[in-house]
Write a structure and sequence with these properties.
Chain A is α+β, with helices and mostly antiparallel strands. Chain A is built from 5 helices and 6 strands, in the order βαββαββααβα. Chain B is of the alpha+beta class. Chain B has 2 domains: about 200 residues, Aldehyde Ferredoxin Oxidoreductase,  A, domain 1 (4-Layer Sandwich), CATH 3.60.9.10; about 280 residues, Orthogonal Bundle (Aldehyde Ferredoxin Oxidoreductase Protein, subunit A, domain 2). In chain B, α1 crosses α2 and α21 packs across α24. Classes of the chains: A alpha+beta (about 140), B alpha+beta (about 625). The interface between A and B is large, with 35 and 44 residues.
């Protein structure tokens, strides 16, 4: 599975951030979300959706191998994490976060809540096999 | 005790001290006034010393969210602002979309109360628990949007920012508060009061959770609410053009203010409507927090003058600049919009004042010397020149900055006949000389001539309660309309005056309901699941009614000689016939207005001068207000 951003559909409403907070953390707290919407205003006047594409840069940066991949999804083992935050620095999309309420960084596990909640189809959850067929 | 739905604290900032105080949200305030507009109305009544001047440090600005603000439901991004209005001298409030209110709640505050006056230009930074006042010397004088650019750069993308522009700094009485590169709390001069307090901006970042009474059920109800919105015909039919989509309808039913309200129909409306925004300007839809039907249209305006970016124009801006100043193209309207946004001027009052000024010039009441150049309708240069004079208070701009009512008194020579306002607040985008219900709505709106409080134009024209999308779909005939009867309008106006402001109390947007017909039962259910306090919609509306009496009482307390005469229309709308279009020849006489006001006051339980009676105030639980307002009436 993969999350794909269709930036031109985004209206900046941030319902995706709300949904991420609800699904991942059971909180009404969009600051928890492990994706970001950046408004590029006044010019060029567009939104940019930053999503985790499971590139693995975080795992490469982790000095204690606390981030591992299973079925294409990278997850953090909180017990192994030493809170060095090298993964946060390494994330090329700026979507690994250390929230003030946590000591361990948070990252996307492709649950798809953001895609399901987006009113405009700006985030799409696609199956790799579907993508392969489309190609 | 957890107050579910709420953040639980009120932030008080005395800019004179400066002193910052956090207090626990009073559960009685939440129970009796719910939030948003309710908090604003009660706090203004309780805390502003009677007789305070709007620009005195003792005046306060309340910035309040509602219990549903920042929660998972469509359109939960609203913030309500209130103050003693520099426009009317009475109750003033305004509502803003965007993302500021949710951020304030996530930082831990349901409301923020601003009092005092900073010794020098300042801005306020709220970062969860950390609250500080910073020096704004480098920002003072900057445009409202440019200030947001600067603060985003300094603080980061995840701060939500409200700013004022030069117009508010120079105490133009209709300056707005700006947010999110094109959202405004536009009306009643609340931005001006920030300017009077030397407050240039407020930036907030919030990272805390909001408590929810029944989390799982509220999430399911929220999901269903979005699902039901998606099924509404307006979801795909209304959203693309947003508020601008109503332009043709309003013109076809002869209610489009044109040429400083001399007439109500504009031949060039097809050049300045929602379709033209899509064809010529739009880059992206721009949505407020959690909104599935973004009315914001963000675009690029390319003209021989150069290129600017702007959110809008919304319908009101189209009406007041496209109709009232007769700007000919959507690019011209958008350009004026962008200039207002940067100056920090309300586009409604800005367009109304510009139209008034041009007519004063045409009729010889103002001269080329007053402006420094000739001005005329239909000319963007004239409009921009006037807006600049106003914002800088140069030449005649110093007089026009006071709004049409005060400016007309200063200009004299009969200028009052050209000033279209109620209680000192300029009229908005619906011309009412053959829409008596809508006329009554404007006359009795608590802040002055504003459509936000009640909108019954559709009912006036069609006799039905159809939602706006349905009205737009049906369209107006454009044919000559018979004169409407004025009797029997009060109940519909009162119902609308309770319904629409209810959303300002809950902290959500009303457009889902008003434009698409989204059912109010959703709010009843979501409110109960989020707050744990079950109330039927009728019980919620009863709170809205109480607030209406309270805001009326505030204005009655604060404005000398307040009464029926302040609910009368401006001379133009009750003495001059509409010049052309479907309502040519129509107007509503003063006698007819008095018939409507008699019916309205009686239905409200106000005396014949429009003052809430002791019995009425006590009926809605405002006994203390009754004692204060009517000390000589039997208790």
């Amino acid at each position: 599975m993969q999350l794909t951003a269709i930036h031109e559909n985004c209206s900046g409403c941030r319902t995706c951030l709300m949904a991420c907070g609800l699904a991942r953390f059971k909180e009404v707290n969009p600051s928890r979300a492990v994706l970001r919407i950046n408004g590029l205003f006044p010019a060029p006047g567009v939104y940019r959706i930053d999503l985790c594409d499971q590139c693995g840069a975080c795992a490469d940066a982790c000095p204690v191998e606390a981030i591992t991949e299973t079925d294409g999804v990278y997850t953090i083992d909180a017990d192994l994490c030493t809170e060095c935050l090298l993964c946060v620095e390494a994330c090329p999309h700026g979507v690994m976060f250390i929230h003030p309420a946590e000591t361990v960084p948070s990252k996307c596990n492709i649950c798809g809540a953001c895609a399901e909640a987006c009113p405009r189809g700006a985030i799409v959850l696609t199956d790799e096999s579907e993508k392969a067929r489309a190609v | 005790m957890t107050l579910y739905g709420y953040a639980g604290q009120i932030l008080r900032v005395d800019l004179s001290g400066p002193a910052i105080k956090k207090e626990t949200l009073d559960p009685d305030l939440a129970e009796n006034y719910i939030g948003g507009r309710g908090f604003v109305a009660r706090m203004l009544w309780d805390e502003i010393p009677p007789g305070t001047e709007p620009f005195a440090p003792e005046n306060m600005v309340v910035v309040a969210t509602g219990p549903l603000t920042g929660h998972y439901l469509p359109g939960s991004g609203k913030t309500h602002f209130g103050t003693k209005s520099p426009a009317s001298g009475g109750y003033g409030d305004g509502n803003m979309g965007g993302h500021f209110g949710p951020a304030l709640k996530y930082a831990g505050y349901d409301a923020m109360v601003l009092t005092g006056k900073a010794g020098r230009p300042s801005y306020l930074v709220i970062d969860d628990d950390r609250v500080e006042i910073r020096d704004a010397a480098s920002l003072w004088g900057k445009g409202a949007i440019q200030t947001e650019v600067a603060l985003k750069k300094e603080l980061g993308e995840d701060f939500e920012i409200c700013t004022i522009g030069p117009a508010a700094e120079n105490l133009v009485r209709y300056a707005c508060i700006s947010h999110d590169f094109g959202r405004q709390c536009g009306r009643t001069g609340i931005g001006t009061v920030w300017g009077s307090k030397n407050l240039k901006a407020v930036a907030v970042r919030g990272r805390k959770p909001l408590p929810v009474y029944d989390f799982d059920a509220a999430m399911e109800a929220g999901k269903r609410a979005y699902g039901d919105i998606y099924k509404k015909p307006g979801f795909t039919g209304w959203t693309p053009e947003g508020t601008a989509g109503i332009t043709n309808f309003v013109n076809q039913v002869g209610a489009f203010p044109t040429r400083n309200f001399q007439t109500s129909w504009a031949a060039h409306h097809e050049q300045i409507n929602g379709k033209k925004i899509l064809e010529r300007l739009k880059i992206t839809d721009k949505g407020c927090f959690c909104c599935p039907i973004p009315c914001g249209k963000y675009g690029k305006v390319e003209t021989a003058r150069g290129t600017v970016y702007v959110e809008g124009p919304e319908f009101e801006t189209i009406a007041l600049f496209g109709g009232n100043c007769v700007l000919q193209t959507i690019e011209e309207v958008a350009w004026a919009n962008q200039v207002c946004d940067e100056l920090g001027l309300d586009t409604i009052s800005g367009g109304a004042v510009a139209g008034f000024a041009i007519e004063c010039f045409e009729k010889g009441l103002l001269t080329e010397e007053d402006f420094g150049q000739p001005v005329r309708f239909g000319d963007l240069d004239s409009v921009l020149h006037i807006l600049g004079l106003i914002a800088r208070r140069e030449k005649i701009g110093d007089v026009l900055a006071e709004g049409v009512a005060r400016a007309a008194r200063t200009i004299g020579k009969g200028a009052e006949a050209l000033a279209v306002h109620v209680k000192g607040l300029e009229w908005t985008g619906y011309e009412c000389r053959n829409a008596p219900g809508m006329m009554l709505a404007y006359l009795t709106a608590d802040v002055g001539a504003h459509h936000n409080r009640a909108w019954v134009l559709g009912k006036d024209v069609t006799g039905t309660d159809a939602d706006v999308h349905a009205l737009i779909e049906a369209g107006g005939s454009g044919e000559r309309m018979a004169k409407s009867a004025v009797r029997g309008k009060a109940r519909g106006v009162i119902d609308s005056q309770h319904l629409r402001p209810m959303f300002d109390v809950l902290g959500t947007c009303r457009l889902q309901m008003m434009e698409l017909g989204f059912e109010v039962a959703h709010y009843e259910e979501l409110s109960a699941l989020i707050t744990g306090r079950k109330r039927t919609w009728d019980e919620l509306i009863a709170v809205s009614e109480k607030i209406w009496h309270l805001t009326r009482a505030f204005s009655a307390r604060e404005i000398d000689g307040f009464g029926r005469k302040m609910d009368m229309p401006p001379p133009r709308l009750c003495r001059e016939a509409i010049l052309d279009g479907p309502n040519q020849g129509h107007f509503i006489t003063e006698d007819e207005v008095n018939i409507m006001l008699d019916e309205y006051y009686a239905a409200r339980g106000w005396n014949e001068d429009g003052i809430p009676t002791t019995a009425t105030l006590e009926r809605v639980g405002l006994d203390d207000v009754a004692r204060n307002l009517n000390p000589h009436q039997p208790q």
